[in-house]
Write a structure and sequence with these properties.
The chain is mostly helical. 52% of the residues lie in helices and 10% in strands. The chain has a domain of 91 residues. It contains five helices and three strands; from the N terminus they run αααααβββ. A three-stranded antiparallel β-sheet has the order 2-1-3.
């Protein structure tokens, strides 16, 4: 019985020591995320136009800033976003899918990085996609024929 208790104690200490260190987000990290959200807003506003021609350059630069930051979560998110940035900007259908995946990462960032209250999450059940934008008015970037389809999520 004593061997079992000692083994259990050693296992518990080992398990606790393997716990991932939580690195807090500082003001510089918050600013990087805020800049990325701003560039995301510009991309989504372009998709609201009749003939969208998104320019991913500034957005990509913001993502590179995340990847080169000193925060492990920001690096990971930046790498995930980098793999989703559309390479063929004229193929809108594949762009919508990639944007959707980017939005899911950004929504996760909004939930974990402090002071990102300017941006709201919206959801459209018709296309089953979410996005982040400023304001409270629904402006669906995924469905040109249904720009007002969706709802503000709390």
């Amino acid at each position: 019985m004593k061997v079992f208790q000692i083994s259990l104690l050693v296992f518990a200490i080992f398990a606790l020591s393997c716990k991932e260190e939580v690195v807090p987000f500082g003001p510089n990290h918050e600013k990087l995320v805020e800049t990325l959200f701003s560039k995301n807003q510009s991309i989504l506003e372009e998709f609201l136009k009749d003939n969208p021609k998104p320019d991913w350059k500034e957005f990509s630069e913001s993502v590179k800033s995340l990847v080169s930051s000193d925060h492990p979560k920001l690096k990971t998110w930046g790498e995930q976003i980098t793999s989703q940035i559309p390479s063929n900007v004229t193929d809108l259908e594949s762009s919508y899918e990639k944007i959707s995946k980017i939005q899911e990462i950004l929504i996760q960032m909004k939930s974990e990085v402090p002071n990102q209250l300017k941006y709201n999450r919206f959801y459209c059940p018709m296309v089953d996609k979410s996005w982040l934008m400023t304001g409270k008015e629904v402006k669906n970037p995924y469905a040109p024929e249904m720009r007002d389809c969706g709802e503000l999520m709390q």
